[in-house]
Amino acid sequence: MPRPPTRLLSPEIITDAAIRMVDTAGDFTMPGLAERLKVRPSSLYNHVSGRAEIVEAMRARIMSTIAVGAPAGDWSETVAALAREYRRAYAAHPRLIPLFTAQTVQSPVAFGLYNALAQAFTDAGFTPAQVLHAVTTVDSFVLGSALDLAAPEVVWANVPETGDAMRAALQTAGPNPQRADAAFEFGLRALVAGLVAQTPAGR
Amino acid sequence: MPRPPTRLLSPEIITDAAIRMVDTAGDFTMPGLAERLKVRPSSLYNHVSGRAEIVEAMRARIMSTIAVGAPAGDWSETVAALAREYRRAYAAHPRLIPLFTAQTVQSPVAFGLYNALAQAFTDAGFTPAQVLHAVTTVDSFVLGSALDLAAPEVVWANVPETGDAMRAALQTAGPNPQRADAAFEFGLRALVAGLVAQTPAGR
DNA sequence: ACCTGAACACCGTTCAAGT
DNA sequence: ACCTGAACACCGTTCAAGT
C-alpha cells in the first residue's frame, strides 16, 4: 500500500526515532530507522536529504532545549548558569555527542547561547578577543565534560599497579552519571573562579 | 605473488598508514588502507583484529608521544605543562580525535599522564575525590579544546544579525590553529588559576 | 606465516514505478 | 505528494586456497 491515508513520516518523526535509536543502541542506521518507523529505507529520502541531515537535525533538537533566559545576578553566575544549561542539554542524550564531534556543524544552532555567554564576558570587561577565547573555553569544557558522561565505567578498570596518587583518586569514583556530574561541578567552579581572576578590573 | 620475500605489513605499518589517511582524508577505511599499502583488504586481518583495533592503536600511538617528565617548580606549573603536552599530542593529528570519541577506550594508555596530574593535585593538598575531579576536569578541557582545533573555519560563518557581543568577538577571530591555540592558552590560564584558588590551604 | 580471491551481510543513496 | 522495489557502489569481515 503506497501512500497510506495518514502521513507516516516527517523530518520531526525521523529525528525523534533517530534520537531514540542512538539512546538505546549507541548509533543509528537508515535501515534501522526505517524498520522502527515501519517503512522502507528509501522512504526516508522523501523527507531528509540523508544521514548527515538527520545528525544536524538531532543537534538542532538538543540545542533547542537550551533556555538562555535573562541574566540574573553577577556575570559569573550567568556564565555558570549557561554552562550548566548547555551541559544539561547534552547530558539528556549523552550517546549523541560522539556523532556531533564526527560531523562538521553546518549552522550556528547554538548562537543564542554563545551570544549570551559573550554578553556576560563583555559585561565583565573582557576585550572582544578575550570574549571569543572565553566563550571557546566554556564550549570546550562543556563538550569535553559531556563526552565524559558518555564514557563507560570500564575506562578506568584494570589500572596498573604503580601510580598511587591516581589509584587513590580512582577508589573514590562512584558510578556515572554522579561521578561525571560531580567532576563537572568541581571544574566549573574552578573555571569560573579563574575567569573572574582574569578580569581586567577584578569586576 | 602471495607471500613476497619481504614483509609487506605489520601492526605498526598499518597504524602509520591509517594515521596518514585520517590526516589527509579525515577518515580511514579498510579498502583505502589496503590500497595505500598495495595489498588486498583481507590481508590486513593477518595483523590486526579489525577496524576498532586500528583506532585503538592510533590512540596508543598519539598517547605514546606524551612526555611526562619530572615535575619542575610549582604544582600548578606542572599541571599546566602536562595539559599543554597532552593537547600538543592531540593537536599533531586533530582529525583523529573524533574517531577517539566515537569509540570506547579499551586500555588506560594515558595512565602515566593521569597519574602525573594526580600527583600534582595531591601535592596541592586536594583530597583523593577532588584529585579525581581535577584530573577529569583537565582531561575534559583538553579533549574539548583539541576538538575545537579540528573544527573548520566555516563553523562561525553566516552568524545572525543580532547578537552584538558575539559578533564583535567573532570579528577578532583569526585562522586556525592560531585561534584555537590562543583560546586554549587563555582557558588554561583561567582553569589553573581557578584550581589554585580551590586549594585547601591556598598552597 | 602471510597474502589472495571469493563470498557474505550490511550500509547509504538513487530512481523509476506506482497510487 | 510520498511510499516502494530494485539497483548500485561501498564497507567490514571471514575463510578456504595458495605458497
UniProtKB/TrEMBL annotation, chains A, B:
The keyword 4Fe-4S belongs to this UniProt entry's keyword annotation: no
Domain of life: Bacteria
Keyword terms, alphabetized: Repressor, Transcription, Transcription regulation
InterPro entries: Homeodomain-like_sf, Repressor_TetR_C, Tet_transcr_reg_TetR, Tet_transcr_reg_TetR-rel_C_sf
GO term, biological process aspect, one: response to antibiotic
Pfam families for the chain: TetR_C_1
Domain Tetracycline repressor TetR C-terminal per the UniProt entry, residue ranges: 71-198
Entry-linked Gene3D superfamilies: Tetracycline Repressor, domain 2
Record-given protein name: Tetracycline repressor
Organism expressing this protein natively: Rhodococcus ruber
